[in-house]
Amino acid sequence: MEFHAFDDVLVLYYPPCPNGFIRVMRVCTHWELHTGVFGLDWSDSKTEGEAKAEYGLANEVIESEWFK
Q1: I need a labelling partner for 21 at 20 to 30 A (CA). Which of 12, 46, 52, 65 fits?
Q2: What is the pLDDT of residues 30-53, one digit of tens each?
Q3: Would you say residue 29 has pLDDT above 60?
Q4: How many domains does the structure of the chain reveal?
Q5: 10 and 28 Cβ atoms separated by less than 8 Å
Q6: Does residue 66 sit in helix, strand or coil?
Q7: What is the pLDDT of residues 11-23, one digit of tens each?
Q8: How does the average pLDDT of the chain come out, rounded?
Q9: With helix as H, strand as E and coil as C, how does 25-65 read?
């Protein structure tokens, strides 16, 4: 499951356990999720934006591909 912490910050998590705890899997951007490339540093928004533009992708398009 996922939710948006900010416009381009996704928090991916497992569904809540019966005891009410959730387990966070990853905090990433749409582009990181789309490419499957995750680094230790937060991605550079300018570089990420240029890569998205090169492929004609927007956050909404990436989301629609992954979360149908």
Answers
A1: 65
A2: 888 878 877 776 667 777 778 777
A3: yes
A4: 1
A5: yes
A6: helix
A7: 999 988 888 888 9
A8: 79
A9: EEEECHHHHHHCCCCCCCCCHHHHHHHHHHHCCCHHHHHHH
Token output for 52: 């998205």
Distance set, CA 46 to CA 17, 49, 53 (Å):
38, 5, 11
Q: Domain range for residue 61?
A: 2-66
pLDDT value of position 68: 54
Tokens read off for 6: 């900010």
Q: Which two tokens stand for residue 7?
A: 């416009």
DSSP letter for 21, please: -
